[in-house]
Amino acid sequence: MSEHTLEPWFYTGSDIWNLVPDNNGEATQDLIANASENDARRIVACVNACAGIETETIESVDSEKINSLIEDRDLWRLRYERRV
């Protein structure tokens, strides 16, 4: 399993960051990267959506499989909403 910065990630403007404890146990911001605001938003959304999934697993899934999973999720969501 590859090492990476733990989630959740956040963005403000073009800065991408997360919270880490300082020496006193207080939360402090840790700047991860800087990108355009649109890219920062997309990067953060993707990273947080993939939390808990190994990088190798993400890399092995092709876009058609991801689209299929999203369609399945949406169908189940519609079925559930119709029952409620």
List the helices and strands and how they pair.
Elements: E1 9-12, E2 15-21, E3 27-34, H1 37-49, H2 55-60, H3 63-83
Antiparallel strand pairs: 1-2, 2-3
Describe the protein's architecture and organization.
The chain folds into two domains: 52 residues, no CATH class; 26 residues. By secondary structure, the chain is of the alpha+beta class. The chain has a three-stranded antiparallel sheet with strand order 1-2-3. 48% of the residues lie in helices and 23% in strands.
Elements, N to C (H/E): EEEHHH
- Shape, principal axes of CA atoms: elongated
Q: How many domain regions? A: 2
Mean pLDDT: 89
Give the amount of beta strand, in percent: 15-25%
Biggest β-sheet, characterized? Answer: 3 strands, antiparallel
Q: How would you classify the helix and strand content by structural class?
A: alpha+beta
Helix fraction bin: 40-55%
Number of helices: 3
Radius of gyration: 17 Å
Number of strands: 3
State the end-to-end distance.
40 Å
Strand order of the largest sheet: 1-2-3
Query: Which regions are unreliable across 5 or more consecutive residues at pLDDT < 50?
Result: none
